[in-house]
Design goal:
33% strand; 4-stranded antiparallel β-sheet; Neuraminidase; 430 residues
């Protein structure tokens, strides 16, 4: 009897060990690329990447691990920048980079003739999760820095100690705060949720705020946004587009991440900026796993909630987004070719919470001048195509793209907080 009991116990232990090993491997496989050190130093393998054969130009050796569209090349513009997130260019053409995980904002001085970084240093240190950066359009030397708990304005290239412009809710959950001056010259601030999914006590959490610097007033511009980390204004319609990260714990494929178009509530309806979290997600889908109330009518439909504009595969973690500008009037064909005009690039930072990792790339979404897309299937899906891939390898992730800056001179800058670099991507004319 004792022997039988011992055998049963051993069998239970073996089964438990097997389940634990399976569970650990399953989750480790998914989280590994996000958390583990890169399998290689991308600064040593990327070269100044080959120009594809379609250009008719000679290719540099190896070409590096990143796969690019025809006629593009890529190089390491700056390195030794772990945690690099938001990039902003100042009126001198120098670049400021927030390094959230390192509590710093770095200055990259760029040579006017060479276009290369000639000096870099951490100008602002010991900050609390600095993320958003923005220059005042009326005072180009005034830099706004968003920390987790506040926004400060500091005069660059001076001894200005700075001043606090606005205090923000903090503590728990998402801590990045992103900034941008809109066409109305008001300051927009994204504030993520304090949780994965919950009812927020503070009305400024899970929102995009709008702050009037002249009047000192702050209002909720859009709500129901769990974590809209990055946003940008469409170059023609001037409407605000925001990437949005969906909640966790609904499986590998739900809910979708999103791109949302936010209309100004003052020119539309009171609910124009309500995107439904935590009750709804995606195309007006009710999150019944969280919200178990019974309704007479669907709570996830207009005018109560606004649905997403574009759904993105779950857990892709969309961050930076940027539109190609229309610059046909530039001399000697210096601007982007017409085929790129108004198209959107989006950085998929990459999953940490999915069995099979996804993301770790930059995609291109083809749009017309009004931001409309052509559907590619009966479900009305947009045309989304890979633009840069290769960061995710079988051995792990070489990097994780974050922010995107598209310049009129056919140059694109991309930050990478995992590899700690800034890439410079260049389009070669025929």
């Amino acid at each position: 009897m004792k022997k039988l009991a011992l055998i049963i116990i051993l069998l239970i232990l073996v089964i438990a060990a097997g389940w634990a090993a399976s569970f650990t491997w399953k989750n480790f496989r998914g989280v590994g690329p996000a958390l583990l050190e890169p399998p290689e130093d991308i600064t040593k393998v990327i070269n100044t990447t080959s120009l594809p054969a379609q250009t008719g130009m000679p290719a540099s050796p190896a070409g590096g691990p990143l796969k690019l569209p025809p006629r593009f090349s890529i190089e390491i513009f700056a390195k030794d920048l772990p945690g690099a997130r938001v990039m902003r260019l100042d009126s001198f053409g120098n670049m400021w980079v927030s390094r959230t995980s390192k509590g710093a904002v770095s200055l990259l001085e760029i040579g006017k003739e060479s276009g290369a970084v000639r000096h870099q240093e951490d100008v602002f240190k010991n900050l609390r999760n600095p993320h958003g950066l923005a220059f005042d359009p009326d005072f180009p030397f005034a830099l706004y820095i968003a920390e987790e708990h506040q926004i400060r304005r500091i005069g660059t290239y001076s001894e200005d100690p700075g001043q606090t412009i606005l205090e923000l809710p903090s503590g728990g959950g998402h801590f990045t705060r992103t900034l941008g001056f809109g066409p109305d010259k008001k300051l927009y601030i994204s504030v993520g949720s304090s949780c994965n999914v919950c009812r927020e006590a503070n009305p400024w959490r899970a929102t995009i705020l709008r702050h009037d610097l002249q009047e000192g007033k702050t209002e909720v511009f859009a709500k129901g946004l769990r974590n809209a980390v990055f946003f940008a204004w469409h170059p023609v319609t001037k409407k605000l587009w925001a990437t949005e990260m969906g909640r966790d714990l609904l499986g590998d494929n739900l809910p979708p991440d999103e791109i949302n178009i936010v209309e100004d509530p003052s020119t539309n309806s009171e609910q124009a900026g309500n995107f439904g979290w935590p009750t709804c997600y995606g195309k007006n889908i009710h999150d019944t796993a969280f919200d178990k109330k019974t309704y007479i009518r669907n709570p996830c439909m207009e005018p109560f909630e606004k649905d997403s504009y574009i759904n993105i595969p779950a857990h892709s973690a969309p961050l930076g987004l940027a539109f190609f500008p229309q610059e046909a009037r530039l001399p000697d064909g210096q601007g982007w070719p017409k085929e790129f005009h108004d198209d959107l690039l989006v950085a998929y930072h990459g999953s940490w919470n999915r069995d099979e990792p996804t993301g770790y790339k930059i995609v291109r979404i083809r749009l017309d001048s009004q931001g409309n897309y052509e559907s590619t299937d009966s479900a009305g899906s947009p045309q989304v195509e890979d633009f840069i891939t290769g960061w995710l390898t079988p051995e792990g992730a070489l990097g994780r793209p974050v922010d995107i800056l598209i310049q009129t001179n056919r140059v694109i800058y991309i930050s990478d907080d995992k590899a700690g670099v800034i890439y410079k991507m260049t389009y070669a004319a025929e």
